Amino acid sequence: MLHTKVSQFEDIIDQALTTALEDKTPQLVSFVEQIDYQNPYVFFHNGVKVDQHRVFWKSAEEDFLMVGVGSANKMFTSGADRFQNLQTAWNELREKAIVSDGYKQKGTGVVALGGFSFNSGNLKEAPWEKFPDSQMTIPCFLLTNYHHVSYLTINAVIYPEDHKQQILNQLLEQEELLFHGQDFTPHIPERIRAEEQDPEGWKSSVKQATEDIKAGLLDKVVLARELKVNFKEDVHIAAVLQELAAKQANSYLFAIESEGAYFIGATPERLAKVEDKTLVSTCLAGTIPRGRNEDEDLRLGKQLLHDRKNRQEHEFVVQMIRDAVDACCYDVEIPSSPVLYPLRNLQHLYTPVRATLQTGYTLLDVIERLHPTPALGGMPQHTAIDYIKANERMDRGWYAGPVGWMDRQNNGEFAVAIRSALIQGKKASLFAGCGVVEDSDPQSEYEETAVKLQPMLSVLGG
Ligand SMILES: C=C(O[C@H]1C=CC=C(C(=O)O)[C@@H]1O)C(=O)O
Ligand SMILES: [Mg+2]
């Protein structure tokens, strides 16, 4: 921290101490400075010297990335009201915060990063014991890279009994650790085993789902499966993130730590983004591989655009998102037919959604209404959720749940945590699912999920 900045920082600690003493409650302070450009993977790597708790977010569409280290505060909410309870806790925190910020860039200052499990309130089964129903962290140190400029936010909670010099010394020491040592050797772990969980059983549950759909039980359901992987050594999370960033364009990258386990992924699917009053959402469902050459790629893309089964998978998502967005927005814009969304090894049907939020609604309200969309759950929403609980034979944990961030102005963005893995030391569980409709073929759906497992598998042992 520059010397001039230290005195500004001292000022807000003084202010916070006064308020904390008057109100007899802890006080959140937030200090933002522009710094020399930082490599986010090195920052993430160095972060562990300060705190094991680290979070990471990279946008799919613009040069915008955040790395959080430590936590000034963590918000946990659970049960059916977890989104609303989080909003209440968040409002209290952000309104009371004392902020020193001369830049006002998005994703700086009082920012919360984290996510939610797919289902709320269920008992956590292996391997999800270390992940709560929801967790949103206000990092102690937050690096924000936006349009190739780096900002560092320091967030701290000041208690009435704190001493200014002590707080200052500790934060400056930690800051030194974060910026000390400028590189690490990228190391992809050696895989010693990859074990599918009963593939034949999974295919028969897809078959059964098509029969239940034909029988009128529901219209669509997304069924997922797990791949368990073991490595020779502990997985180096910073290296995995760096590899994912190099390989997976058009994807959101995220990593969230909880009790030493890391949930990490490269997902193409936005759930909702709010900037000022503009809401953007994404309908992404319907899948085909990329071609091995341009001709094959075009042919496959065309095939996907005209395939009845994939169009049906997609249409359920558009319908549901349209209804949910109509209820809390105006000026809703949704094109009448999808276009292709290309990824490294597969392509999806994509329909963008844009609207203006009605006054009084927040990003979390929208997420509560949307989650899970039929791209992750099914149609009708609640029937599909129950169907998944009864038939999927695994605990989804945070797979397909909302992950993302929000700032003090209630702007922010959440994606859905698909193409993801839960990593614990030398072990990982990878997850992928697919939309099942009446015309689904179990073998093709199985192959589709195999392709969806590839992005994570390719950075976890090659
Ligand atoms: C549920 C997943 O993908 C969804 C997103 C895009 C396309 C999908 C599909 O075509 O089945 C899925 O709905 C996953 O990757 O685990
Ligand atoms: Mg599909």
From TrEMBL:
Annotated ranges, domain Chorismate-utilising enzyme C-terminal: 199-452
Positions of the catalytic residues: 220, 269
Keyword terms of this UniProt record: Isomerase, Magnesium, Menaquinone biosynthesis, Metal-binding
Binding site for Mg(2+): 313, 448
EC number: 5.4.4.2
Reactions performed catalytically: chorismate = isochorismate
MF terms (GO), sorted A to Z: isochorismate synthase activity
Pathway(s) where this gene product acts: Quinol/quinone metabolism; 1,4-dihydroxy-2-naphthoate biosynthesis; 1,4-dihydroxy-2-naphthoate from chorismate: step 1/7; Quinol/quinone metabolism; menaquinone biosynthesis
Cofactor(s) recorded in Swiss-Prot or TrEMBL: Mg(2+)
Highest taxon of source: Bacteria
UniProt family annotation: Belongs to the isochorismate synthase family.
HAMAP family tied to this protein: MenF (MF_01935)
Task performed by this protein: Catalyzes the conversion of chorismate to isochorismate.
Protein name: Isochorismate synthase MenF
